[in-house]
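Q: How would the structure tokens look for this protein?
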Amino acid sequence: MDLIYGLPFQSPERFSHSVDQILQLEPDRVALFSYAHVPWLKKQQGAFAAKLPEGMQKFEIFRTGMLKFLEAGYLYIGMDHFAKPGDELAVSQQNRTLHRNFQGYTTKAGADLYGMGVTAISGIQDTYAQNQRELAAWQEAVTDTGYATMRGYTLSGDDRIRRSVISRLLCHTVILKDEVAREFAIDFDEYFAPELQQLEPSRADGLVVLDGNEIRTTWLGRIFIRTLAMVFDPYLEKQQLHAKPLFSKTL
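A: Here is the predicted structure in token form.
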């Protein structure tokens, strides 16, 4: 079951009622997505910008849903996913075999992901490719060439290391430094010295534990785990996202 929080006119009380109805259906998994307000991409969204819950009100909507799912016995997998204890997502996380791709959390680690539709992104081994964003261009490309790829990217060695680190944090809520060091033949503390320094404020806020061989999120930190993972992504600063936002907010 997919739920979106942060929608126009939504409130904690209204969302609580929606979650109660969902719980009666007893889904095995729930994805609790944050509404992405991107009027620079979707101009029609600008019409209801004044009706959106913001700041602490939006957080309270998320908190309302999270507490209800936890009280109903669901496990918080991370970011936006909840699952019943016996579900394969929960089991995979316990076994540290959980994976995350563009569709969310999955047990299919190592599997290629082929995106077919407009704007879809494919992840094939160490390459990514995105399809045309506009329907007319997508149709023309498929008709003329048989595929709709607009652009692609091959990961560098540094990209692969960082992808692995970010994936470990998002999926397992812990990074074991020696595992990464052995897999990529690096000195973790030396390689990620700037990132470890950037995590110090989060440690002071009680979001993450930096202890010897481990980087482990706290329970509170799991709510903000996407923000913690962003520390290891150098492209965010290079793209100057603060000056020109491209994506949805982390919460």
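The chain has twelve helices and twelve strands.

The mean pLDDT is 90.

Upvote if useful.
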